[in-house]
Amino acid sequence: MNILFISSEVYPFAYCGGLGEVVSSLTKALAKIDVESDVRCVMPLYSSVSREYREKMKYCGFYYTSLSWRHQYCGVFEYEEGNVKYYFLDNEYYFKRNMMYGDFDDAERYAYFSKAALELPYFVKWMPDIVHANDWQSALSVIYQRCFNILPNAKTVYTIHNIEYQGRYSMDIYSDILGLNEAFEGVVRFNGDINLTKGAICSCDRLTTVSKRYAKEIQTEYYAHSLDSVIRDNSVKLKGIVNGIDVEKYKIIDKKEEVKERLQKLCNLPVDSNIPIFSMVTRLVSHKGIDLVIRVIDEIMKADIQLILLGKGDFAYERAMTDIQKRYCNKMCVKIGFDSEASKEIYRGSDFFLMPSKSEPCGIAQMIASINGTIPIVRETGGLYDTIKPYNPCTNEGNGITFATYNAHDMLGAIWRAIGIYNDKQQFYPLRRNAEEADFSVYKSAEEYLKLYKEMMYV
After folding, report:
1. Is 329 within 8 Å of 352 (Cβ atoms)?
2. Cis-peptide into 12, omega within 30 deg
3. Pairwise CA distance, residues 335 & 267, whole Å
């Protein structure tokens, strides 16, 4: 098969979240386990792509992409790594920006990207059998394919990585920017607006999301951010496939005790191997459960523990956590921002990793922590439910500690259980071993996607 991934971000070239990492690891895994398939990936050439990679790219030429009445230049650069060929679409008007997302003309920028990505195969003289689009930024590639049949023999897969972000815009841009024909207005219209995710859900041949549990959750009003009825109407083509990680990339080989000591020094905390370290590496936004932590922080800090938080996000949460640290400076470390090296130390050096999410489509942080012997404490939602199972000391099964309801004291109870397990080494060490040995390999999800693609080929 010829498989073309369309994604607005890909690690390590340009990324700001899990989407880029998932696309990167999945494409490489697909190319490795199915050497007969030709896996390629296309993304924008943002100004943030480093010189290190730009110098290794090959300039292939250019073509022009029509977007409604616009006729826009599209330069093509190529780079190959891990048996995957990456294409970078160059247009400085759209992508020479300080931010990847969040500009006033995002609808136009990603409409251009989606259209240009579908026209790329004609330029490089390589036709895909499968076009796999990811999240709202490339949703229009699926919609354009259904509307104009740009690639006559290609089947489309659309993956929802987080249904909260849908690509909603005023209907004013329908003809002037999107350039869709009149018959397709009903496909993208939702609650009086354009909704690109809704349009892609209705237009794609197969719909996937990033965990089995999340595939069920987004069919309910609580999780779907108003799209539950659309998901249910298209549930026959929906499949949940749990994300995986590149284990070799994330697993640190240093001894746990040595990393823990380094981590305590890095965070200016008392060096004491007997004190359990609880940590969070997270975006500071509402659905990550930060409000639960703030609600019971004084009760948490009564225990003989240390707490480390690394992340950035909403200013109110950043300020609240920084203020709390001032009260518990000898037991707590808050680092606002993101530091890749510090995150590695936290994943490996901590004893417990807290993820009290309100919603979590899949999550990879709990997997990274787990394989490094840091026991996840998670709420039973989305991919957290699929990947972390509660520890049962009687059967020695389970790789973490879980709680069910989105409630601060339910979370607090899980933290108390974790402290009890830590103090009982006959439970703690077997649980840590289970966490380290859990199989989160990206090759498992790659096998499921290959099976899905092959099913589509013969339908």
Report:
1. no
2. yes
3. 9
Tokens 């490089």 identify what position?
A: 124
Q: What does the alpha-carbon distance between residue 136 and residue 123 come to, in Å, rounded to a whole number?
A: 25
Torsion-angle region of 125 (φ positive above 0: left; ψ -120 to 50: alpha; else: beta): left
Give the whole-angstrom CA distance, residue 15 versus residue 340.
Answer: 13
**What token pair was written down for 423?**
């103090």
**Selection from 271, 282, 338, 347 nearest residue 306 by Cα:** 271
Q: Could you tell me if 233 and 200 are in contact, meaning their C-beta atoms sit under 8 angstroms apart? A: no
Q: Within 13 Å, how many C-alpha atoms sit on residue 373's CB side?
A: 18
What does residue 319 show for φ and ψ, rounded to 5 degrees? -65, -40
Q: Which of 158, 44, 155 is nearest to 103 (CA)?
A: 44
Per-residue pLDDT tens for 43-95? 999 999 999 999 999 999 999 999 999 999 999 999 999 899 999 999 999 99
CA 194 to chain centre: 24
List the one residue out of 203, 209, 197 whose CA is nearest residue 238: 209
Sheet of 375-379, strands arranged across: 332-336, 306-311, 277-281, 352-355, 375-379, 401-403
3-state helix, strand, coil in the chain (%, to 5): 45, 25, 35
Are the beta carbons of 142 and 117 closer than 8 angstroms?
A: no
CA 163 from centroid of its chain's CA atoms: 11
Rg (CA), the chain: 23
> At 151, is the secondary structure helix, strand, or coil?
coil
Measured CA to CA, the distance from residue 117 to residue 6 in angstroms comes to 7
Alpha carbon of 73 to those of 3, 44, 70: distances in Å?
A: 25, 13, 10
Average pLDDT, the chain: 96
**What is the value of pTM for the model shown?**
0.95
Chain centroid offset of residue 136 CA: 13
DSSP H helices in 219-301:
221-224, 228-233, 247-250, 256-266, 290-295, 297-300
- Residue 117 token pair: 């990505």
Strand order in the sheet with 238-240: 58-67, 70-81, 84-90, 38-44, 2-6, 130-134, 155-160, 206-209, 238-240
CA angle, residues 281, 283, 287, in degrees to nearest 5 = 115
